[in-house]
Amino acid sequence: EVQLVESGGGLVQPGGSLRLSCAASGFTLSEYSMNWVRQAPGKGLEWVSYITSSSTTIYYADSVEGRFTISRDNAKNSLYLQMNSLRDEDTAVYYCAREEGYYGSGRYYYFDYWGQGTLVTVSS
Amino acid sequence: QSVLTQPPSASGTPGQRVTISCSGSSSNIGSNSVNWYQQLPGTAPKFFIYNNHQRPSGVPDRFSGSKSGTSASLAISGLQSEDEADYYCAAWDGSLNGWVFGGGTKLTVL
Predict the structure, then answer these.
(1) Under 8 Å CB-to-CB from A103, ≥6 apart: which residues?
(2) Which residues pair with A19 in a beta bridge?
(3) A57 and chain B: CB distance < 8 Å anywhere?
(4) What is the pLDDT of residue A105?
(5) Does residue A103 have a pLDDT over 90?
(6) What pLDDT digit, counting tens, does each position of B43-81 carry?
(7) Quick one: three-class SS letters along chain A?
(8) Which of A80, A82, A55 is nearest to A68 (CA)?
(9) Which of A37-41, A81-85, A104-108 is predicted with the least confidence, judged by mean pLDDT?
(10) Which residues of chain A does B56 touch, with a Cβ-Cβ cutoff of 8 Å?
(11) Which one of A47, A62, A108 has the shortest CB-CB distance to B51?
(12) pLDDT of res. A32
């Protein structure tokens, strides 16, 4: 059974740092690109960051570029999000999501598995 | 403000047909496939429709997706109370180099 379990959330002051982890099981992490998606309280989904299977390509949303760093350790079946210079507006539930894709003609991609999320609260 | 535009709410009575729209641009929906995610209250999102119209196993055939140009839609026929949830559309944006989501539509079964 595919499982994604996030951890590392908590209360942090503005300007502080936090490192989120996502433990993957039930599949081979090294075969998939992964993403972080967040959801502020009572708001919609916002994509945060993307990393390919071998970490060769990484993208960030403009809202976190330069402050957040995505990484992975396939040997440890883990995905990470290092969050620095945190702001009030970073308060959200953070989900990791596995990206499945079809790479033939007419390629397409989607998030087929999501973790349960970890809450990050930035407040003084 | 979300890159993809969805109505904030939709509603219908049991058995009715409801459609949720999702509007984008040439850099996202116009050039990439659209996915839909369902989020039940207090739970993580779940993938519901992928590649514009394909349903994963377990999603009833009452749900259907379509795409035309820079817009997409999710149709639900034979509305049931358990369909009450938030629905989000999403697509890759080649100009932003990232995934973009709609703001979400809260579906209420009256």
Answers:
(1) none
(2) A82
(3) no
(4) 79
(5) no
(6) 999 999 999 999 999 999 999 999 999 999 999 999 999
(7) CCEEEEECCEEECCCCCEEEEEEEECCCHHHCEEEEEEECCCCCEEEEEEECCCCCCEEECCCCCCCEEEEEEHHHCEEEEEECCCCHHHCEEEEEEEEEEECCCCCEEEEEEECCCEEEEECC
(8) A82
(9) A104-108
(10) 112
(11) A108
(12) 97
Distance CA A110, CA B35 (A): 6
Q: Which residues contact A59 (CB under 8 A, 6 or more apart)?
A: A49, A50, B97, B98
Question: Scanning every residue of chain B, which has its alpha carbon at the shortest distance from the alpha carbon of A118?
Answer: B44
| Tens-place pLDDT, residues A31-60 | 999 999 999 999 999 999 999 999 999 999
> Can you tell me which residue has the tokens 């939709």?
B10
